[in-house]
Amino acid sequence: MALPRLVDYSSSDDSSSESERGKDGRNNSRSSNNRSSNSSSGQDYCSDSSSKGEEDAGHVRGGWSGHVYLRIRSSTQLHRLALACMDAICPRLDDNIRGNAKSADILDLEKVRTIEEPHISLTRPFYLPEHQIAGFVRELESCLNGLGPLAVGFGRISTYVNERQDRGFVAADVDYGEESVRRVLDHVNRLMEKFGQRKFFRDPRFHVSLLSVDLTPGSNKMSKVGATLGAAMGEEIAHLVAMQIDEVECIFGNKKFSFGLDAK
């Protein structure tokens, strides 16, 4: 049965640096006070706007592409988990084994990439005219005032595919701390509405993407990936410790703004 298409991952690589995507080549900026389904056995059509395609980069469709997300700084254990997932789904098959395997069951290591900057998205892809960006950033900083740091833990590995079905994602779903993330999201949603933008999804599954996978549209590889990881990664994810998040980042084109989550 077809799965619901909840969000729209674009076809670009989530590991691409957002700071390189503007049209004017300016350096990243920081604000003045230094302050942005299914289980692992299946797959969802879901996305976060971190994986904007090249068509979403820079100044397009009458505005600059934007993205607001919770930045995870201490990501060593997530990186280790990503590598463990890659090892589980991309065994180093020798020529004889590979020659006897079905091509549909093999993932090419060159088509699987780790996500370089783990984060939890709070917005879908959106665009603002340049003259509105400064106001949006000021109001984002204001609406986050008084929100303290939060801790999140992860309870399972899930797989996602984009609407075009040409890119899949392996992600760790947020288990502990989901309500804290939702409180931050509520503030961001109100700001998005104020600027005439779409809110985030009604019943979001907060997650951190670990790997991106190039797919042939129509293939069923992510379902196989989910089944493999469901059996292999249970113990790995159970050993993850909760992570503190104390920063929200906002990106427009190649400009990045960071906001600390510091309780009053």
TrEMBL record:
InterPro entries: Usb1 (IPR027521)
Biased composition (Low complexity): 28-50
GO terms, molecular function: 3'-5'-RNA exonuclease activity; lyase activity
Gene3D superfamilies per record: Cyclic phosphodiesterase
Cross-referenced PANTHER family: U6 SNRNA PHOSPHODIESTERASE 1
Segments forming a coiled coil: none
Name of the molecule in the record: U6 snRNA phosphodiesterase 1
Superkingdom as given in the UniProt entry: Eukaryota
Keywords: Exonuclease, Hydrolase, Lyase, Nuclease, Nucleus
One Gene Ontology cellular component: nucleus
UniProt gene name: USB1
